Amino acid sequence: MKSATTFLMFQGQADEAIQQYQQWFFDLQVESLTYMENSQQVAMAVLHLKGLKIMVNDSAIKHNFTFTPSTSIYVECESAEEIGSLVAQILEGGQALMPLDNYGFSKQFAWVQDRFGVSWQLTYN
């Protein structure tokens, strides 16, 4: 096996999602980004977030499915302020699957789905 990578397939919102994620996560790095010819649709992008490689694209084929909450990106926050800020930002247009709270396994934990349908589990201990 050469590698294993998280892959997020959007349907026309990849560029907008990348821009939004750059605002939420200041250390998100865009390694590469190419667009489909004569379009703002992302042919392929490679992102890096705290050691996690994420590939992103817009599907050229329309599908009857999108993201499922059971697959999520797990983020360990460095402070109570950071988790609170991220949860608030992601909830703008998104939804809380598990609101920010103490669930026993984490002093502060939230499972939120952003407006693009991508799920994020955020924790702070």
From TrEMBL:
It holds the Pfam family 3-dmu-9_3-mt. Residues 4-123 form the PhnB-like domain. Gene3D superfamilies: 3.30.720.100, 3.30.720.110. It comes from the Bacteria. InterPro entries: 3_dmu_93_MTrfase, Glyas_Bleomycin-R_OHBP_Dase, PhnB-like. PANTHER family: PHNB-LIKE DOMAIN-CONTAINING PROTEIN, PROTEIN YJDN-RELATED. This is VOC family protein. It comes from Lysinibacillus xylanilyticus. The lineage of its organism: Bacteria, Bacillati, Bacillota, Bacilli, Bacillales.
